[in-house]
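Hi R.,

Here's the input for the iron/sulfur cluster complex you asked about:
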Amino acid sequence: MQAGLLKTFTNPVQSRRATAWLLSAALFVVYFMFYFNIPPGMEGLAAALGLDSRWTLYGILYTIAIIVGGGFFLKRHGNSRYHRVRTISLMFFQIVFAFSIPMVMELFGSKGFTFSIFWPLKIDYFYPSNIFEYPVLLIVYAFVTALIGVPIMTILFGKRWYCSWMCGCGGLAETAGEPFRHLTSKSSGAWRFEQAAIHSVLVLAIVTTALVLINWGLHHTNGQGEWVASYAGFDAVASKVQGVYQFIVVAMLSGVLGVGLYPLMGNRVWCRYFCPLAAILGLFQKFGRFRITVKDDMCISCGNCSTYCEMGIDVRAYAQTNVSFKRAACVGCGICAHVCPRGVLKLENKWDFRQGPDQKVIKIFDM
Ligand code: SF4
Ligand code: SF4
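And here is the predicted structure with iron/sulfur cluster in place:
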């Protein structure tokens, strides 16, 4: 079932050769066509197919990519129960929660709501303009899941409950993006960029949300009952920041670059460098139960684990020195343990930070 693992570097599209650059360019073009509706126009194509908008077409294509990619992943790694269950979970959440439920809601005339996406990944769930379009129960759900559910689940189970089991972005990365996981950079420069970039996006998400909420709090209504900003200057700044976030983070980083760079920089470009929800999950993961345990003196330094870590973690460095670890970036995909020929690694949820007869304290590296 592991056949093909070592062919990764002989396949041109998986090793940054011309076909990989062409595929990347094609993904860029497709994403630009969706986000900016540039000619020939996805809106027209969607209409020709009898769909109500280009975003329905996008949802269909995205879901198909996860189903087909999931089939590929299961063929390759389905001998592991962990990978069977989490891949089926990712496909289920995409098909049911991310695609079908919002579409059915729209068919019944209400605004679609995705139960499997939380603030700040879905930043508009905290925008007043959205809040008042949803029933109060959905707003309560959005706030409770983001502010209470996410921290509790992450402390108990690590980031993996979301990034590798539920999230749509993670779903595409783990399925259609699977062939490119080894392309993630393991350099210290990439790690420093990750630290700076992901926390900058998180700060930007918090600032943007705060500005929009404060601006709404400062408004008043005129004689006709219309919404009027009390401070025109503040209103202009809040609108500008909101627009910049939408363009840079939502359109460019999560879509165009996040997926377009799969064939060149690996399948977790968005998740590793830019996702503000991943930044929050990582902070809670540091204090939670999840860790990767290393069996003492078993590692033969083959490097499979580091090569196939999609988050750029040098797992081998921990294994060689018999150090179990927690890393904020780790999405708990479990591939490092799966490809290890010596069974050195184990993903665990345990409160105790000690192991073995000598009660060795597990070090918690950097993030
Ligand atoms: S360390 Fe292992 S479980 Fe964590 S992201 Fe890397 S490959 Fe996946
Ligand atoms: S895959 Fe296993 S044996 Fe190979 S370097 Fe990693 S921990 Fe060591």
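One thing worth noting: The chain has three domains: 5-180, 188-270, 282-361.

Cheers,
M.
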